[in-house]
Amino acid sequence: MSDLTRNLPTFRPDVQGLRGVAVLAVVLYHAEIGAAGGFAGVDVFFVISGFVVARMMLGELAAEGRISLGRFFARRIRRLVPILTVVNLATLGASVWFLDPFGEQQQAAATARWSTFFSANIQMYLDDTYQKLVGNPFRHLWSLAVEEQFYVVFPVVVALVATLAFRSGSRAVVRWLTAAFSLIGAASFVYCLVLVADPSRSDWIRWSFFGMPARMWEFCAGIVLAFAMSGIRAVPRRMADALGAIGLAALAWTFVSIGGVEPFPGAITAVPVLGTVAVIFGGGAHGAVRRALSIRPLTWLGDISYGWYLWHWPAMVFAAIAFPAVDHVRTLACIASLVVSAVTYRFIEQPFRNSAILGGRRSIALLAGSALVVLAGATAVDVGARNGYGLRDGVATSFIDETQFFGGEFELARRSGTMEGSCYLDRLEDQFEAMALVRNGCSNGISAGAAKIVLIGDSQSLAASEGLLEAARQIGVRAVGFGGSACPVLADSPRGRVDRCAPVQDRYRELVALVDPAIVVIANFYIVQDPDDIPSLQDDRRIPTKTGRIPRTIRAQVDAMVDSLRIEVRRYVREGRRVVLMISPPPGVLVERTLFERAFPDRATPEELGLSEIVAERRLVAERLFAEFTYEPGVTVFDPRLLVCGNPDVCAESSTGVLLYVDSAHLNPRGSLTLTSGWRAVLTALLAQ
Description:
Layout: H1 13-30, H2 41-64, H3 69-98, H4 104-116, H5 120-126, H6 142-165, H7 170-196, H8 202-210, H9 216-230, H10 237-257, H11 270-282, H12 288-293, H13 296-303, H14 305-322, H15 329-353, H16 361-386, H17 408-416, H18 431-440, E1 452-457, H19 460-474, E2 478-481, H20 498-515, E3 519-523, H21 554-574, E4 578-582, E5 588-589, H22 595-599, H23 611-629, E6 635-638, H24 641-645, E7 651-652, E8 654-655, E9 658-659, E10 661-663, E11 666-667, H25 669-673, H26 676-688
Parallel strand pairs: 1-2, 1-3, 3-4, 4-6, 5-7
Antiparallel strand pairs: 8-9, 10-11
Helix pairs in contact: 1-2, 1-13, 1-14, 2-6, 2-9, 2-11, 3-4, 3-14, 3-15, 3-16, 4-5, 4-16, 5-6, 5-8, 6-7, 7-8, 7-9, 9-11, 10-11, 14-15, 18-20, 19-26, 21-23
């Protein structure tokens, strides 16, 4: 059966060089160095991985006439587990020093545990979004989990198909395998497209990113290519060079041009996948493409690509914390991790990979021992974080804590034991439920009178609610509060959330009409986004301009929001209501958030933590709100920024062990109560008119 591997040499230096290109793209993307689409380097890895493993399988079939599943998995264990264990343990150790013990360390430990079983992608899917995990030093391990989950399926399919087709000859085996993985790949691709077809289904889109079934087609592209090339006697050089050049151009375009707004993976992902296929095929001939990718710097990067991929992300996460004021700190961290990767490749990866004694049961023992060590390390991190190391007097806070719910939110949560059916409008089933909540919950408990107040807004309504409801209670006026997560009170919906927010924004109007208040309080979180940093369409929260265009600059985004807000405000004023617009409280910064910050307090200042841009954006929003609405009839602008801590730009999240913020953007109930006196003054003046 030697004809199975006619055109599949045991080593392709150009493919190794392509690995180097892929890892470099990913690292440059994470370091934010001119590779906006560098994340697609992971997709290149998937195709290469499928090609290389399929070629190895064909070689084994040719040499022995069968597939040894035990040998396959032993190779994978020796190749992946030793260095992964070292990186995981080192990262867990650094997490204790650099990460917050009130949440971040637990998240890191949890991901380390999941990664031990090559299932970090599942945990990240359950933890909502990739972007929310930005500070998790294990975030990048989702792709390794996807790959290994596929390789639980792959050898079994190969073995079954080969067994069924073997009696018909070696060519029949290849044809059957090609057909099987073509069908699997086509089904996976269609499944992926279905998942991303509806922008409002964020859970489906998350699964398309993290889920192995939606990524299988990328591996299958490389596998089918390996099977196809095994039957080609010679690859024509001119055609190979032309295809290879087209493939390289496709990859270059992908790495430089693909932004984060398109659903990914999706139809656009076919560009890097097919580009990789073209490059690998083009390298089958000893032409220009093969020579270009076979240069030693690229093949060397390919040699250490696995280790560099593992080391570079935690290095960047921790370096950014340790040296927040150093320019290009991520780049320096990447270079340092490259050096570490070269060392661990020489002394850990290669010795274990080439070990002649770690086969069979010994490989299983290696896997089990490594898993136990990492699990023990993750447990130790959890136990240590439990006491908080004396940081912030051990006080933690969360919206999920029942004491953090506002007004009727607390009562409803206590009755139902769940967040469902709460005062967040996107969780309400119908308007009748909304009416019941108006009567029985989401209020300050004062009986309805002639003067009533309704609070509406996105998550910033939480920041306003406790202080507002208490101030209204003190002056004897009924106040009702509702929020719509990520759905501001505007005439227009955010670009990526129209399907979700339009019904919520309609509900705001219905509830105001139902309660018929004298005063409508609007508390919005005015989002300004960098278009290049929007991870997916559903995360695009920009408001279209009057002409329907999507604003790109900060000022254009603020102008579009103010224009849309003006329409909504005037709607309520025409109804005879007074409107109060609340400016967002200052962002919060934790003091001594980590053991590192305790040891080096001078390393953590608002400017160095990247808050200067946020402060500037919030100042611009405040200036525009004052400029547009100070003299608008029936409208009052409430500025709470000095009430929280006396600083209009930034506050410490805790004071003498008492937390005022649930996160950097949202006050908790204690923090909200600092606004009570300000609300009382505003409401008293309005009700006296």
